[in-house]
Design goal:
Length: about 100
């Protein structure tokens, strides 16, 4: 599946717009990760535990978006965007969305 943050795919013509596709992932922190991150917060440094959690969330959201596009018969997803939000204390959501298209 081709994915692009632009509204087109270089060198290809869009034959049909199939609609909005999206995927999301909500992850929560856990006690072990919080303890390690808390110690890093005191001494400084990258919070790898949370970065890894968000990478996994993006991967899950992207996969769900791709699966939705495949069900529509899409060849590509254009205008891909990611957003994050806090659902409740200790959880975060990653939403991936874009427009599923059929290419010539």
């Amino acid at each position: 599946m081709l994915m692009s943050t632009t509204d087109s795919v270089a060198g290809r013509e869009i034959e049909a717009t199939l609609g909005l596709v999206k995927g999301n992932s909500v992850q929560s922190r856990n006690v072990g990760r919080d303890i390690v991150a808390g110690l890093r917060n005191i001494v400084g440094g990258e919070m790898k535990e949370y970065a890894e959690m968000l990478v996994r969330s993006r991967e899950i959201a992207t996969k769900e978006m791709e699966e939705e596009a495949l069900k529509l018969g899409a060849d590509a997803i254009v205008g891909v965007r990611f957003t994050t939000s806090s659902v409740m204390d200790g959880t975060s959501e990653v939403l991936a969305y874009g427009t599923a298209v059929k290419l010539k």
